[in-house]
Amino acid sequence: MDTTPQQTRADLVRLVAAEAVSNIGTRMTFFAIPWLVLVTTGDPVKVGLVAGAETLTYVVSGVLAAPLQDRIGARRTSLWSDAGSVAVMAAVALAGRQSFALLLVLVAVLGVLRAQGDRAKTTLLVPLMGATGTDYARVAAVREGVLRTSTLLGSSLAGVAVVVLGPIGGIWFDAATYVVAVALTVPTRTAEAAAPETPAVPYFTALRDGFTWFRRNRLMRAVTGMLFFTNLFNQAAAVVFVPLWVYANMDDPAALGAVATAYAVGLIAGNALVAWLSPVLPRYPMLVAGYLIGGVPRFLVLALSDDLLVIVAVTVVGGVAMSSLNPTVGAMIYQRTPKEMLARMGGIITAVAFGGVPLGGLLAGYLVRFFGLTDAILVATGLYFAVTLTPVIGHRLWRELDDTAPAPPKPGDGRPLPALYGLAGAVTGPRVSLRYADGGWTLHARHGLRRLARQRPVAPGAAVGALTRLDVPPLHAALRETVTHERARVADRTRTVRTRVVHLERRLAELTSALERG
Questions:
Q1: DSSP 217-246
Q2: What is the value of pTM for the model shown?
Q3: Is residue 184 part of a domain?
Q4: CATH number, domain with residue 113
Q5: Quick one: CA dihedral 350, 352, 353, 354, positive or negative?
Q6: 148-157, 205-214, 403-412, range with greatest mean pLDDT
Q7: Which end of the chain has less neighbouring CB within 10 Å, N or C?
Q8: What is the band of 405 on the pLDDT scale with cuts at 50, 70, 90?
Q9: Domain span at residue 1?
């Protein structure tokens, strides 16, 4: 089997591409199946039941079926899940109109298959990252950007596909994307070879071991709890606050699409930026800045402004800032979790993190009912801000995020320095400033944000002597110009002093003469 770095990287690209393609189809189904239910039954309650059935089975099966994935193998699970999704989508397209009960069962099965396929592909990615020696945060950022782009593309195409092809055509399109995902996953044998051997353990033992490991990992629990609350508030904004703001101020559904697109574009652009900068940026400050810049302002502007352009601008900036979160958290999970437990951890973390999503809309609805839209947004803003302070208050624990970052490369260790590493070193490394002003030399030294030496005077001879040792002709020219200027300034001051001395001597002579005459 070819396990060269080139083949490993190719398999990494194939897996991300498979996720992206199936994600486009999933967004199609997200619109097509509810629309099918609506046009065939006309019952909005049944629309909600269909959406809830898939979400519930997706979350629950991610936890309960993870030990089975460990036993079967991630690659086989991914292939069988995608192949099963093709069959289920075909069944929905052929028989979905006949019986709502049958449609509900098929959608629930689809949720199970999607959960296993998504978890399996993530599990396959991690050993490939390790085999290529790629920075986890960088790959996570690239993957997140690709998936965000595919989601935006799928959402944009979904409306057109449903109109042109009808809901059944959109469902068939989703089935076709799963076929493509299978074709992309089949050649990825290096992922299976790079994965560690998982010892066979009883189902309930494996499930218990997963929960035990999660419970004992304080950072993992803290991060997952944070995701629970931030997903809750983000869902509140997406399904209640933003639509109500648009209804109250614009009464134009296009404005709702503009806000959603702005956030997605910000996330995509931010993921590209994070992928570029991840080798040189510490992960803890990046996560804290992402929450503080990308969280509260997006809520606060809804309460304080009725200008759509302001909302869109702040939302784009918020998306760029928030894009640092998933790669940082994902890299931490990939690196801190034992490879044989990735499927179980992925299921548990997803279940807890997404647990806040169904509560977000409910909480926002009650807040609006009791306080009104503006005050409800302000209350949610305060609660969101309190949650985002968690990494700051618990900084001793959250700083362990930096421990999962790769060791910085050093010149001469045989590894190529990443792009921008020299620039980052100039910004965060030691800096010594030697300055000449007002006829005197001063020295100032810092290391990153830490001050090494306060501004202090330096003897002119020592300063000039140190600078002349540097083989930099423009610096020597600048020094000569400075010395010439200083000589001229001293000569001018000398003439001024001499003039004043002559004046004072004349006055003193006049006083002496006056005293002698008296």
A1: -HHHHHHHHHHHHHHHHHHHIIIIIHHHHH
A2: 0.69
A3: yes
A4: 1.20.1250
A5: positive
A6: 205-214
A7: C
A8: low
A9: 1-135+166-195
